[in-house]
Amino acid sequence: MITIKPARLEHQTAISRLHATSWQTVYAGLLNSQYLSEGVFTERGALWQQRFSHPSTNQRIFVAEEGSQLLGFICIYLDQSKDYGTLIENLHVDANTTGKGIGKALIQQAAQVIQTEALYKGAYLEVLSQNLSAQKFYDHLGGKPIISQQWQAPEGSLVDELVYAWTSITPILES
Q1: Which of 64, 67, 70 has its CA nearest to residue 16?
Q2: Contact (Cβ atoms closer than 8 angstroms) between residue 167 and residue 122
Q3: pLDDT beyond 90 at 161
C-alpha cells in the first residue's frame, strides 16, 4: 500500500538520490553530461542536506512510500509569492512507478496543505519547456503556463522553462 506522509530526516538520502536520478533521465541532453553523470549526486545531496538541516518555516516536504521504498516526493514553500501563492519547488516520482497516480497523490497532498495553511490559495511551479510529459500532467490538473523564461541550472546551463500556475488549488483537489 502506498502512503503519503511528511518527510523525516531518514528520508534525506533517498530523496536526494531520487532527485539526482530523475534529473539524469529528464535533463539528459539539456544539462552538461559530466554534471549529470558525476556532479548531480553531490550537488543534490548538498541541497537536501541544507533543506533538512535548516528548513524554512514555510517549507513542507512529503514522501510517497510503499513499505520502506521511496516512490516519490514533493517539496513546497507556502506563500512564497504574494502574486502566485505556494511554490511547488520539486515533484519527482521514481521512473519505475510513473503512471500509477503517485505524482497526483503528492500534488493533492500539497494542495490540501495549501488549503489549510496558506494565506494565498494559488500555486505555481517551473517546468522545463522540453519536459512535455510533466506539462501534460500539469495541464490535466488545471495548471496554465503563464511565463516563458530561462533557468540557470546549477552547472551553469541556460534552459528554457515555463512557469505553470493555478489561481486556485481547487482543480488539483477535484482531479
Answers
A1: 70
A2: yes
A3: yes
